[in-house]
């Protein structure tokens, strides 16, 4: 099983597991080369997975791709964590 959070994988149904794995690592700041080394695949394969993700999310840049990841993850986390009402 790849190194990833499967609950976050579930909020990206547009992507295959391989695409999500590269997408998640890239969104966490790993370079294409680092992802390729960690997953034991070519940099070309990583770039292909990231391009498919960009196309599926209609992103022009990698920054937009990272933003989509962070927005969905933060939305999921905020829905699942009750707000503290007694903090001052």
UniProtKB/TrEMBL annotation:
Q: Which GO terms describe its biological process?
A: regulation of DNA-templated transcription
Enumerate the GO terms in the molecular function aspect: DNA binding
Domain HTH luxR-type residue range list: 12-69
InterPro entries, per the entry: Sig_transdc_resp-reg_C-effctor (IPR016032), Tscrpt_reg_LuxR_C (IPR000792), WH-like_DNA-bd_sf (IPR036388)
Q: Pfam families, alphabetically? A: GerE
Q: Which SMART domains match?
A: HTH_LUXR (SM00421)
* UniProt name for this protein: HTH luxR-type domain-containing protein
Gene source species? Vibrio tapetis subsp. tapetis
